[in-house]
Design brief:
By secondary structure, the protein is an alpha+beta fold. The chain has 3 helices and 12 strands, in the order αβββββαβαββββββ. It is 16% helix and 47% strand. Keywords: Oxidoreductase.
């Protein structure tokens, strides 16, 4: 099968949108991603997947720390900024949670240290140990079939 067909198949799975961020020598770097999931409750571990050619790969290896910021449906602009889909003249102001830069008002901010890494195919899976987190109320930004979407609740059937 060709690469495009495989990507289209994977795009059928709706995901949340997050920004991975790290800091090196006072400079903060962010990257939009959707490959993220929880791994373990004890210890509290998550996994992110970074492409072999992504600049973020060496940055996370160098810093040993990163954050995962689950974006709200009001934060599509932030997603586009860190995906390189839209250019912005202003510098982005990050907050701080523990030792990691974070996106203010994200639905979830996770401050992590690299716990382990695994190379699989053309990506590296970073296992992150969650050291701190912040939760906010709101609806998530969703990505499905190459488009941003909002979560909509179904009304319960009347019995």
């Amino acid at each position: 099968m060709d690469d495009r067909k495989f990507r289209n198949a994977m795009g059928k799975f709706a995901t949340g949108v997050n920004v991975i961020a790290t800091e090196i020598d006072g400079e903060v770097y962010g990257m939009t991603a959707n490959a993220f999931m929880s791994v373990s409750l004890d210890p509290k571990l998550i996994v992110i997947s970074i492409g072999n050619r992504a600049k973020m790969l060496d940055r996370i290896r160098q810093s040993g720390r990163f954050s995962v910021n689950v974006l709200s449906c009001e934060q599509q602009e932030e997603s586009m900024r860190f995906a390189g889909q839209k250019e912005f003249e202003d510098k982005f102001d990050f907050g701080q949670l523990g030792d990691a830069p974070v996106i203010e008002d994200a639905l979830c901010q996770l401050s992590c240290e690299v716990y382990n890494e695994h190379t699989e195919g053309d990506h590296v899976l970073f296992i992150g140990k969650v050291n701190d987190l912040v939760l906010e109320d709101g609806d998530p930004l969703i990505f499905n079939c190459g488009k941003y979407r909002r979560l909509e609740a179904f009304e319960e059937a009347v019995k």
